[in-house]
Amino acid sequence: MNSLRWDIYCKVIDNHGDIGVCWRLCADLAARGHLVRLWVDDASALDWMAPQGGAGVQVLAWSAATLAQLQSTARADVVIEAFGCELETAWVAHYADPAQRAPVWINLEYLSAQSYVERCHGLPSPVLHGPGQGLSKHFFYPGFTAATGGLLRETDLAQRQSAFDRQAWLAQQGIDIAGERLISLFCYEPPALAALLEQLMAGPQPTRLLVCAGRGQDATRALLRQRSEPGQLAVTWLPALTQRDYDHLLWACDLNFVRGEDSLVRALWAGKPFVWNIYPQHDQAHQAKLEAFLDMLQAPPSLRDFHRVWNGLNASPLPALSLAPWGESALAARARLLQQADLSQQLVRFVEKTAKI
What we know:
With 357 residues, the chain is α/β, with parallel strands linked by helices. The protein contains 15 helices and twelve strands. The protein is elongated and about 70 Å long.
């Protein structure tokens, strides 16, 4: 495999999922021997997400002031616009310079299990006007089948996971456990959050809830302030975790509540029971997206019902946790997905094939 030069562009919208996915992709490509530049309009989240940086990844400010920096360096072989961000006209003109070979231009799309992903993955989108006229962008869809672009998965992930020392990691975080069930909570403000806390407090076994920093932690604190008796529930408030330590958290817990795209994929690789808080959309498009994911997961009825109530798509009482069948479903899905080429592999293959065309 030849080393390629990648320019990956990211605009941080909210919740850090966009830069989280982009950073994992950049770091993974660099670990495979590629030269990667991440152009981002707000890199502040990397201070806690990836404080050590990544060998082979250069993080640059994406702003009008840095256009000259782009123009003074070697042009990339690949340009990726992540999640619908679009380059300004002057930036497009740089890549469209007819005196140089055009880069492979990719729109990296959002993750979904819906059927349109297979139909649209890899399709070209000719540029019909502006300085990029005559070029083609290509839609690249991550996904869960062989007809999509796959999922982010580092080459050393299985080795790291098998060498993980749960007790040592928990001790490093100052988490002292005595046989209680461990549940991680990373969410937005799901409608059934209060019901979950009530269920855990009244549950038949002690539970320690490890609550990740962010919106979900704020919502959980507000709800628990209204209750004086914790019952069977103990809570640990986590600081912002690095991406690697977030993986460790998922591996350490008996059940994981996750949100958005990046943490969903990491929960799949963890192989533990999990519940997904999908990003809510005003037009209710997230409902079809969630159902397609549950179909892909081959989720048992109890897990489907829990997801619908957790995400506010069903007003029924929150079902009881059922970790055994949920765990079997997660392990089976992971085994299926491990048979597919990962996202970075597929991107490289796509670029090499497209460049030859």
